[in-house]
Amino acid sequence: MALSGSYFEVMLVGTGAVLAGGFASVSGLDMEVDYEVYTEGGSSYPRFYFNNVKPQHLVLEQGVVTTVDSVSLLMAMVNQGMSIPLGGTITLKDSFGSAQRVWTVVGAHLQKYVGPQLNSNQASVAVSRIELIHNGCF
């Protein structure tokens, strides 16, 4: 169900860094688990053993980051070989600002930032696209 005037409020926090803002589009709120199948001799029922969680790509598009220069801080850290895991919530809000659905994201790391296309004849949003890799959401 698409809500007219709806948006996503993002609040991801890590040690010394905060990524907060409102975005028009969010994708990648997935979780995929890898299992190892093991069958003992003489048994017709396989057993499934947890192997690991497969990283997913969280994409935030067309929004405004409301924290002071948090994207450049995260990018500077990545350029220095450091990456802080971010965790927090993504909330779908309706046109009145009421929360409709909340997802919790854990272990997110900045992977890509695409700034706005600068054009003096058109108004543009502050962030075109932010991509993070994460370990799952619920």
Automatic annotation (TrEMBL):
One Pfam family recorded for the sequence: Phage_T4_gp19
GO MF: structural molecule activity
Name the record gives this protein: Phage tail protein
